[in-house]
Amino acid sequence: MEKAKVLRHMMGYTVGFTLFGVLIPAGLITFSKWAGSFIDTGIFGPEVLRLTIAFLFLAIGLFFVFWSNAALFIIGKGGPADGFNVAISPRSEKLVTSGPYGYTRNPMVFGAYMYYFAVALFMNSVACLALLILFYGLTIPYLKLTEEKRLFKDFGNDFLYYKKQVSMIIPFPNRKK
Question: Would the pLDDT of 46 be above 90?
Fold first, then answer.
């Protein structure tokens, strides 16, 4: 692999990890603490059950994030850092439809939201949970208006066929016929 491409991969993973793995969770924790000073933000108890569920969400989320990144890199020969039509890491050369992409077209988004919901549960914050639901609602139009347009441009009818078979974010059974 050429040196420039390796550097772009490293930059993409660094930007992605910093933003989605550190800054957003730190913001959610800060927001939870801030909102907790104004309103009672408890989700539910007992604490051991809440923390167990949070750990389960965290494990599932991180599994999907790492699995989908590996699939993009190995199968697609590209990286995930692409936002608002700016490619930080190299874009995928091949449409990835297997591995985690066989369950959801956006396994990184699914994994990230599982991770963020784990943070909300850990913080026991209804306000954080409400904020995540709001952002989830905004994520869908963003994906449709940017990511899906780019994927159609890059992969054409192969992407349209894939889109008809696999759910957008939440892993549902495939609609393959």
Answer: no
